[in-house]
Amino acid sequence: MSASASLTHELIQAAYFIAALLFIIGLKRMSSPKGARGGIVWAGIGMLIAGLITFLSPGMRNDILIIVAIFVGGVAAWWSGKRVPMTAMPQMVALYNGMGGGAAAAIACQELVHGRPFAPAPVVLAVAGAIIGAVSFSGSLIAFAKLQGLISRSLRYGAQQAVNSLVLLATLALGGWIVARHGAAPLSVVAAFFALALLEGILITLPIGGADMPVVISLYNACTGLAVAFEGFVLGNAAMIIAGMVVGAAGTLLTQLMARAMNRSLANVLFSNFGETAAAAGEVTGSLKPIEAPDAAVMMAYASKVIVVPGYGMAVAQAQHKIWELCQLLMDRGVTVRFAIHPVAGRMPGHMNVLLAEAGVPYDLISDLDEINAEFETADVALIIGANDVVNPAARADKSSPIYGMPILNADKAKNVIVIKRGKGAGFSGIENALFYLDNTRMLYGDAQKAGAELIQAVKALE
Amino acid sequence: MTGIIALYIFMLAAFTGYEVISRVPVILHTPLMSGSNFVHGIVLVGAMVALGNAHTPLEKTIGFIGVLLAAGNVVGGYVSTERMLEMFKTSQDKRKGGQA
Fold first, then answer.
1. Residue A389 bears catalytic tag
2. Is the pTM of this model over 0.90?
3. Is A335 within 8 Å of A305 (Cβ atoms)?
4. How many CB atoms lie within 10 A of CB A58?
5. Inter-chain contact B83–A82, Cβ cutoff 8 Å?
6. Contact A167, A227 (CB under 8 A)
7. Which member of A332, A364, A368, A389 is catalytic?
8. Same domain? B53 vs B78
9. Are residues B7 and B53 in the same domain?
10. Where are the domains of chain A?
């Protein structure tokens, strides 16, 4: 290696090192709301440095092609990322994540198509990364399509698990063959291998219901990280190994946290058909007692403490701005207002916080389940908007209920409960909600946005 | 890079990821998932090297798709994370903003 080539090599390695450092600092900063915004900027700078320095890599050709690909992919993602409403953020995360998985698979694919012989360790990791990346790619696309409403029903049939296992086995067999040939397998085998891996991603994801999708997206996020780390090893790129592995571990932890919050094991999410068999359980006695907006407004205006429990229904109705306006009116009257967020409110853990933040709710008014649950007993009113299963006391009491054991917000402990709800239907899980039938519960029927506006009018009229 | 060094990197990076995330409050889980999604966009670097070393039209096509997808991961991940995090403000921040 000549002196200048050696210097370039050192420069590239140093840049990758700085990038990896900035990624970890960035992720660390994102762990507190105060520094979070700075965190993504730090990570962004790291990415820019790593991307630019890569053009100096020895033997780089096709510069124009690279720039065109970055430009086209980047502009499309920029355009969509800026336009997407906050409610649709989960499926966009799935989409961008899938692209990363696809890129990792493409790297492996190109290495294998190249046909040059590999050492044993790199070929194993190249093939493993290819499978994981390809499954993450096609699986994330299905997750996107489902949350976006492009696929409305979950495909389920009798021998589904058997078929999925068979496809997986076939994929592994072809992968094993490629490994045995040290990566120098015929093109047709490589093509079949990737086709099967992509098919497996589709088959695994199709039967999973919309309610479980956040867990799946998080899992695929971790998978992409792992695939990137494996391909990083194949390419001898430490930045890819570190960043990919950090995301792989973090994503796995995040997936576990989500699954636990939903009272589901990961195996349960992936291999069971929740939501179709569960609907039968849950007999509830009592009656639903309706209330009109003016009465509900009086109840809250003269309360000393109101806890708002928002659910995805509120976000769908785009009612968060109206509800925040209502809360500000109440706070002006001296009412203490808090927001209680269940870990799985919205479509991903933390999604509801994003939606409330978008409406302008300061995050110090927002509490999670552990912080707020003891406070319901001191609250005069619990206002439930578009939330259902996460406040169902059956999860605490009724052993026969499919959601038994799931941590819930103890809204039933409040002195009064007001539920804003579109109609009399059951929740996402199809279970009747015992909370709605309690003596201290009143139902305010209507679209959350309209109900919010009526409540605002009624509170204003009290001045 | 020797296999054993890589193994050390794998192990230490995994613990780092686990530790960094384990103290994150629930309210930041969605932006964080999006943020970590951005970080694995580093795959762009690998995709660039792959396309940079492509010779045949088939290799170039696969490499091109790889860079295209990776660039989408990077830019989409950044834009969506930044949009979400930008919105997190305390009551105090708001008051300050109001006076300014």
1. yes
2. no
3. yes
4. 12
5. yes
6. no
7. A389
8. yes
9. no
10. 3-276, 286-461
Whether B61 and B19 share a structural domain: no
Q: Are residues B63 and B21 in the same domain?
A: no
- Taking CB atoms within 8 Å and a gap of at least 24, the contacts of A188-193 are A190/A109, A190/A112, A190/A113, A193/A127, A193/A130
Residues 24-43 on B with a CB inside 8 Å of A are 24-43
Quick check: is B31 in a domain?
Answer: no
Distance from CA of B55 to the nearest CA of A (A): 9
The beta-carbon neighbor of A54 closest among B48, B86, B87 is: B48
Reduced to 3 states (helix: H, G, I; strand: E, B; else coil), residue A409 is coil
Domain carrying residue B2 = 1-26
Taking chain A (463 residues) in runs of 10, the rounded mean pLDDT of each run is 81 95 92 84 96 92 95 97 90 95 96 86 94 97 91 78 92 95 91 97 88 87 96 94 95 84 76 49 69 91 94 85 94 94 79 88 88 92 89 84 82 92 66 85 90 92 82
Q: Do B65 and B20 share a domain, yes or no?
A: no
* Surface of A (69-128) touching B: CB under 8 A: 69-78, 80-82, 84, 86, 89-90, 92-93, 95-97, 99-100, 102-104, 106-107, 109-111, 113-114, 121
Structural domain count of chain B: 2
The answer, for B2 touching chain A at a CB cutoff of 8 Å, is no
Q: Is the domain covering A286-461 a CATH 3.40.50.1220 domain?
A: yes
Instruction: Verify that B18 and B48 share a domain, yes or no.
Output: no
Torsion of Cα atoms, A198 then A203 then A208 then A210, to 10°: 50
Q: A103 and B94: CB-CB below 8 Å?
A: no
B46/B83 same-domain check = yes
Residues for chain A: how many in total? 463
**Among candidates B40, B50, B68 on the partner chain, residue whose Cβ is nearest the Cβ of A243:** B40
